[in-house]
Protein backbone atom coordinates (compact mmCIF):
# COMPACT_ATOMS: atom_id res chain seq x y z
CA UNK A 1 0.00 0.00 0.00
CA UNK A 2 1.26 3.47 -0.86
CA UNK A 3 2.89 5.45 1.90
CA UNK A 4 0.77 8.07 3.64
CA UNK A 5 2.13 11.56 3.02
CA UNK A 6 -0.47 13.67 4.77
CA UNK A 7 -3.22 13.10 7.26
CA UNK A 8 -5.49 15.84 8.55
CA UNK A 9 -7.69 15.12 11.55
CA UNK A 10 -10.58 17.24 12.80
CA UNK A 11 -8.93 20.52 11.87
CA UNK A 12 -10.66 23.73 12.97
CA UNK A 13 -9.45 27.14 11.90
CA UNK A 14 -10.61 30.54 13.14
CA UNK A 15 -10.05 34.09 11.98
CA UNK A 16 -10.65 35.89 15.28
CA UNK A 17 -13.98 34.57 16.57
CA UNK A 18 -15.15 33.46 13.16
CA UNK A 19 -14.66 29.83 12.20
CA UNK A 20 -13.30 29.45 8.66
CA UNK A 21 -12.73 25.66 8.64
CA UNK A 22 -14.89 23.10 10.41
CA UNK A 23 -13.74 19.63 11.38
CA UNK A 24 -11.64 18.93 8.27
CA UNK A 25 -10.35 15.36 7.98
CA UNK A 26 -8.75 13.63 5.00
CA UNK A 27 -5.60 11.83 3.99
CA UNK A 28 -3.31 11.72 1.02
CA UNK A 29 -1.14 8.82 -0.12
CA UNK A 30 2.11 9.07 -2.05
CA UNK A 31 1.42 9.84 -5.71
CA UNK A 32 -2.19 10.82 -5.10
CA UNK A 33 -3.76 14.04 -6.38
CA UNK A 34 -6.48 15.74 -4.36
CA UNK A 35 -8.37 18.69 -5.75
CA UNK A 36 -10.19 21.14 -3.50
CA UNK A 37 -13.33 22.39 -5.18
CA UNK A 38 -16.13 24.62 -4.00
CA UNK A 39 -17.69 28.04 -4.41
CA UNK A 40 -15.83 31.25 -3.76
CA UNK A 41 -15.25 31.76 -0.04
CA UNK A 42 -15.72 28.07 0.84
CA UNK A 43 -12.28 27.86 2.47
CA UNK A 44 -10.12 26.21 -0.21
CA UNK A 45 -7.26 28.71 0.01
CA UNK A 46 -7.48 28.79 3.78
CA UNK A 47 -7.16 25.02 3.92
CA UNK A 48 -4.23 24.77 1.51
CA UNK A 49 -2.43 27.62 3.29
CA UNK A 50 -2.96 25.93 6.65
CA UNK A 51 -1.29 22.80 5.26
CA UNK A 52 1.83 24.83 4.60
CA UNK A 53 1.91 26.65 7.93
CA UNK A 54 0.92 29.96 6.36
CA UNK A 55 -2.16 29.98 8.58
CA UNK A 56 -2.32 28.68 12.11
CA UNK A 57 -5.07 26.36 13.29
CA UNK A 58 -6.90 26.07 16.59
CA UNK A 59 -7.37 22.38 17.10
CA UNK A 60 -7.15 19.13 15.28
CA UNK A 61 -3.93 17.65 13.92
CA UNK A 62 -1.83 17.45 10.80
CA UNK A 63 0.52 14.49 10.25
CA UNK A 64 3.26 14.64 7.62
CA UNK A 65 4.59 11.17 6.76
CA UNK A 66 3.20 9.79 10.00
CA UNK A 67 4.69 12.47 12.23
CA UNK A 68 2.44 14.89 14.01
CA UNK A 69 3.21 18.46 13.02
CA UNK A 70 3.93 20.64 16.00
CA UNK A 71 2.53 23.94 14.75
CA UNK A 72 5.53 26.08 15.70
CA UNK A 73 7.18 28.37 13.14
CA UNK A 74 10.42 26.37 13.40
CA UNK A 75 8.71 23.10 12.49
CA UNK A 76 7.09 24.71 9.49
CA UNK A 77 10.37 26.16 8.34
CA UNK A 78 11.76 22.64 8.11
CA UNK A 79 8.61 21.19 6.56
CA UNK A 80 8.37 23.85 3.88
CA UNK A 81 11.49 22.37 2.36
CA UNK A 82 9.45 19.24 1.71
CA UNK A 83 6.22 20.95 0.76
CA UNK A 84 6.36 23.07 -2.38
CA UNK A 85 3.72 25.69 -2.96
CA UNK A 86 2.77 27.67 -6.04
CA UNK A 87 0.38 30.61 -5.72
CA UNK A 88 -1.80 32.59 -8.08
CA UNK A 89 0.60 35.54 -7.80
CA UNK A 90 3.93 33.84 -8.81
CA UNK A 91 5.89 35.62 -6.05
CA UNK A 92 9.18 35.60 -7.94
CA UNK A 93 11.87 37.97 -6.66
CA UNK A 94 11.82 40.86 -9.17
CA UNK A 95 15.47 41.80 -8.71
CA UNK A 96 16.81 38.28 -9.36
CA UNK A 97 17.17 36.51 -12.70
CA UNK A 98 15.11 33.43 -13.40
CA UNK A 99 18.10 31.21 -12.58
CA UNK A 100 18.86 33.03 -9.33
CA UNK A 101 15.22 32.79 -8.31
CA UNK A 102 15.46 29.03 -8.74
CA UNK A 103 18.86 28.65 -7.05
CA UNK A 104 18.11 30.77 -3.99
CA UNK A 105 16.36 28.31 -1.68
CA UNK A 106 18.20 25.09 -2.65
CA UNK A 107 21.60 26.77 -2.15
CA UNK A 108 20.83 29.01 0.83
CA UNK A 109 18.28 26.93 2.73
CA UNK A 110 19.30 23.40 1.76
CA UNK A 111 23.00 24.27 1.37
CA UNK A 112 23.30 22.26 -1.83
CA UNK A 113 26.22 22.98 -4.19
CA UNK A 114 25.39 25.77 -6.64
CA UNK A 115 26.69 23.94 -9.71
CA UNK A 116 24.69 20.81 -8.96
CA UNK A 117 21.47 22.79 -8.47
CA UNK A 118 22.18 24.88 -11.57
CA UNK A 119 22.50 21.77 -13.74
CA UNK A 120 19.24 20.46 -12.39
CA UNK A 121 17.57 23.86 -12.80
CA UNK A 122 18.56 23.91 -16.49
CA UNK A 123 16.99 20.48 -16.96
CA UNK A 124 13.81 21.68 -15.31
CA UNK A 125 13.78 24.86 -17.41
CA UNK A 126 14.16 22.76 -20.55
CA UNK A 127 11.28 20.66 -19.44
CA UNK A 128 9.02 23.72 -19.21
CA UNK A 129 10.52 25.12 -22.44
CA UNK A 130 12.11 28.12 -20.81
CA UNK A 131 15.82 27.26 -20.91
CA UNK A 132 16.43 30.35 -23.04
CA UNK A 133 15.04 32.58 -20.26
CA UNK A 134 17.50 31.60 -17.51
CA UNK A 135 19.10 35.06 -17.52
CA UNK A 136 15.88 37.03 -17.90
CA UNK A 137 14.23 38.97 -15.09
CA UNK A 138 10.63 38.23 -14.10
CA UNK A 139 9.38 41.54 -15.57
CA UNK A 140 10.52 40.33 -19.01
CA UNK A 141 8.28 37.25 -18.85
CA UNK A 142 4.61 36.68 -19.55
CA UNK A 143 2.30 35.54 -16.76
CA UNK A 144 2.33 31.97 -18.07
CA UNK A 145 6.13 31.94 -18.21
CA UNK A 146 6.37 33.34 -14.67
CA UNK A 147 4.07 30.64 -13.42
CA UNK A 148 6.14 27.91 -15.11
CA UNK A 149 9.24 29.38 -13.40
CA UNK A 150 7.42 29.41 -10.06
CA UNK A 151 6.70 25.69 -10.54
CA UNK A 152 10.34 24.98 -11.43
CA UNK A 153 11.49 26.95 -8.39
CA UNK A 154 9.32 24.81 -6.12
CA UNK A 155 10.49 21.57 -7.80
CA UNK A 156 14.15 22.49 -7.36
CA UNK A 157 13.67 21.92 -3.62
CA UNK A 158 12.78 18.23 -4.28
CA UNK A 159 9.40 18.49 -2.54
CA UNK A 160 7.51 15.43 -1.42
CA UNK A 161 4.20 17.24 -1.67
CA UNK A 162 3.18 20.08 -3.99
CA UNK A 163 0.39 22.54 -3.22
CA UNK A 164 -1.13 24.57 -6.05
CA UNK A 165 -3.46 27.45 -5.17
CA UNK A 166 -5.36 28.64 -8.26
CA UNK A 167 -2.16 28.86 -10.27
CA UNK A 168 -3.92 29.76 -13.50
CA UNK A 169 -6.41 32.26 -12.08
CA UNK A 170 -4.42 35.36 -13.14
CA UNK A 171 -3.44 34.06 -16.56
CA UNK A 172 -4.75 34.98 -19.98
CA UNK A 173 -6.74 32.07 -21.40
CA UNK A 174 -4.05 31.14 -23.95
CA UNK A 175 -1.50 30.66 -21.14
CA UNK A 176 -3.66 28.42 -18.99
CA UNK A 177 -3.27 25.19 -20.94
CA UNK A 178 0.56 25.32 -20.92
CA UNK A 179 0.69 25.62 -17.13
CA UNK A 180 -1.96 22.96 -16.53
CA UNK A 181 -0.12 20.56 -18.87
CA UNK A 182 2.98 20.88 -16.70
CA UNK A 183 1.00 20.13 -13.57
CA UNK A 184 -0.64 17.14 -15.28
CA UNK A 185 2.73 15.83 -16.42
CA UNK A 186 4.04 16.08 -12.86
CA UNK A 187 1.32 13.68 -11.88
CA UNK A 188 1.49 11.33 -14.89
CA UNK A 189 5.26 11.15 -15.26
CA UNK A 190 6.68 11.92 -11.81
CA UNK A 191 3.77 10.63 -9.71
CA UNK A 192 4.04 13.78 -7.63
CA UNK A 193 1.75 13.95 -4.61
CA UNK A 194 -0.34 17.08 -4.97
CA UNK A 195 -3.17 19.15 -3.56
CA UNK A 196 -4.70 21.48 -6.10
CA UNK A 197 -7.18 24.33 -5.74
CA UNK A 198 -8.60 25.13 -9.14
CA UNK A 199 -11.63 26.51 -10.93
CA UNK A 200 -10.69 24.62 -14.11
CA UNK A 201 -13.20 21.78 -13.98
CA UNK A 202 -12.02 19.89 -17.05
CA UNK A 203 -8.51 19.84 -15.69
CA UNK A 204 -9.73 18.82 -12.23
CA UNK A 205 -11.75 15.97 -13.71
CA UNK A 206 -8.69 14.69 -15.58
CA UNK A 207 -6.23 14.87 -12.70
CA UNK A 208 -8.14 14.30 -9.44
CA UNK A 209 -7.80 10.94 -7.71
CA UNK A 210 -9.95 12.42 -5.00
CA UNK A 211 -12.13 15.52 -4.72
CA UNK A 212 -12.85 17.40 -1.53
CA UNK A 213 -15.89 19.56 -2.15
CA UNK A 214 -16.09 22.38 0.36
CA UNK A 215 -18.80 24.79 1.31
CA UNK A 216 -18.77 27.24 4.22
CA UNK A 217 -15.53 25.75 5.48
CA UNK A 218 -16.89 22.20 5.68
CA UNK A 219 -16.19 19.17 3.52
CA UNK A 220 -19.56 18.27 1.98
CA UNK A 221 -18.20 15.49 -0.23
CA UNK A 222 -15.02 13.51 -0.23
CA UNK A 223 -15.11 11.16 -3.19
CA UNK A 224 -12.93 9.61 -5.90
CA UNK A 225 -12.51 12.10 -8.75
CA UNK A 226 -14.39 10.13 -11.38
CA UNK A 227 -17.33 9.54 -9.09
CA UNK A 228 -17.54 13.19 -8.08
CA UNK A 229 -17.73 14.43 -11.66
CA UNK A 230 -20.06 11.69 -12.92
CA UNK A 231 -22.28 11.25 -9.88
CA UNK A 232 -22.01 14.08 -7.36
CA UNK A 233 -23.88 13.05 -4.25
CA UNK A 234 -25.09 16.33 -2.78
CA UNK A 235 -27.42 18.84 -4.38
CA UNK A 236 -24.86 21.57 -3.68
CA UNK A 237 -22.15 19.76 -5.62
CA UNK A 238 -24.58 19.17 -8.52
CA UNK A 239 -25.46 22.87 -8.56
CA UNK A 240 -21.81 23.83 -8.32
CA UNK A 241 -20.83 21.66 -11.27
CA UNK A 242 -23.64 22.92 -13.43
CA UNK A 243 -22.77 26.53 -12.54
CA UNK A 244 -19.26 25.77 -13.78
CA UNK A 245 -20.69 24.47 -17.07
CA UNK A 246 -19.59 20.96 -16.34
N1 LIG B 1 -7.00 36.66 6.59
C1 LIG B 1 -8.32 36.53 6.72
N2 LIG B 1 -9.00 37.10 7.72
C2 LIG B 1 -10.34 36.94 7.86
N3 LIG B 1 -11.10 36.20 7.04
C3 LIG B 1 -10.47 35.61 6.02
C4 LIG B 1 -9.07 35.73 5.80
N4 LIG B 1 -8.74 34.99 4.70
C5 LIG B 1 -9.90 34.46 4.25
N5 LIG B 1 -10.93 34.82 5.04
C6 LIG B 1 -12.35 34.42 4.88
O1 LIG B 1 -12.39 33.01 4.93
C7 LIG B 1 -13.36 32.49 4.02
C8 LIG B 1 -12.72 31.49 3.11
O2 LIG B 1 -11.81 32.18 2.24
P1 LIG B 1 -10.89 31.39 1.22
O3 LIG B 1 -10.04 32.42 0.54
O4 LIG B 1 -10.22 30.28 1.91
O5 LIG B 1 -11.98 30.83 0.21
P2 LIG B 1 -11.78 30.14 -1.21
O6 LIG B 1 -12.68 28.95 -1.22
O7 LIG B 1 -10.34 29.92 -1.46
O8 LIG B 1 -12.36 31.27 -2.17
P3 LIG B 1 -11.94 31.68 -3.68
O9 LIG B 1 -12.38 30.55 -4.58
O10 LIG B 1 -12.74 32.93 -3.92
O11 LIG B 1 -10.46 31.94 -3.67
C9 LIG B 1 -13.94 33.70 3.29
O12 LIG B 1 -15.17 34.04 3.90
C10 LIG B 1 -12.92 34.78 3.51
O13 LIG B 1 -13.50 36.06 3.51
UniProtKB/TrEMBL annotation:
Chain ranges passing through the membrane: none
Keyword ATP-binding: yes
GO molecular function: ATP binding
Domain ABC transporter span(s) in chain numbering: 6-241
Keywords from the named record: ATP-binding, Nucleotide-binding, Transport
Pfam families the UniProt entry points to: ABC_tran (PF00005)
UniProt keyword ATP-binding present: yes
UniProt xrefs under InterPro entries: AAA+_ATPase, ABC_ATPase_HisP-typ, ABC_transporter-like_ATP-bd, ABC_transporter-like_CS, MetN_ABC_transporter-like, P-loop_NTPase
Domain of life (superkingdom): Bacteria
Family: Belongs to the ABC transporter superfamily.
UniProt name for this protein: Amino acid ABC transporter ATP-binding protein
Species: Limosilactobacillus coleohominis
Amino acid sequence: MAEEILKVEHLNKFYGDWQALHDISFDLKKGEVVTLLGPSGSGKSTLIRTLNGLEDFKDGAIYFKGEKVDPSPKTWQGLRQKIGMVFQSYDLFPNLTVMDNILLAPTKVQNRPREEVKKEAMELLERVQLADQADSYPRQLSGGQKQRIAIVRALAMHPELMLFDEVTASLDPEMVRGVLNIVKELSDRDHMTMIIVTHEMNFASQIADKVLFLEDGKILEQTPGKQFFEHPQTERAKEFLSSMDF
